[in-house]
């Protein structure tokens, strides 16, 4: 089985690409040999956009997900549209870039939030301009204004955001890199992707991020909810 090449891992700012069809799914998905679309996972939604077939017809992609073995990426277009694609067809993908960029900004900001609140992360989600992290915190006393101030101070550092890879064995030797309790870094390929915010944070992550923290813009903590005896949900939004 041919795996889908994930182009966004090399360049999260790529908005389009040429690809070839590997097959279709009964649910109305198109599987491609390469993609700039992020497939839903790790709290980050799948990308949307459009795909142009060999006849020049354009179809909306409503979501992007992984196939059953997670080696292939499925672009959901609906059953009728999927019937217009055949194995080997040349196609062109066009990403909904404004939506993706908001998610990249939020995702990077959530990394910073995990620095401001250095507690185990029990869950999280990324939206189109907002997001949340759940923390295992024994005591409350969290103040929205204080967290917001610390977050924006980190954003203002305009620190570079880069990626590199380490082996599974290197990750095992450094368990402190993993902050999330509910979502574990994907294994099986022999290597794990690390995202580094220079001088601020380093953790495994397969998502998409901006190149510098300054691109996040101003953020605000909008709510802090109690979700159990030791669980606190912290919500944040992009202000501009």
What does this structure look like?
- The mean pLDDT is 90.
- The longest helix is centred in the middle third of the chain and has 20 residues, at 97-116.
- The strands form 4 sheets. This protein has a 7-stranded antiparallel β-sheet with strand order 6-5-9-2-3-8-7.
- It has 2 domains: 5-95, Elongation Factor Tu (Ef-tu), domain 3 (Beta Barrel); 99-238, 2-Layer Sandwich (Threonyl-tRNA Synthetase, Chain A, domain 2), CATH 3.30.980.10.
- It is of the alpha+beta class and 240 residues long.
- The chain is 18% helix and 36% strand.
- It contains 4 helices and 16 strands.
- Helix 2 (97-116) packs across helix 3.
Brief summary:
By secondary structure, the protein is an alpha+beta fold.
For the structure shown, list the relevant keywords.
single chain; 240 residues; alpha+beta; Elongation Factor Tu (Ef-tu), domain 3; Threonyl-tRNA Synthetase, Chain A, domain 2; 2 domains; four-stranded antiparallel β-sheet; 16 strands; 18% helix; elongated
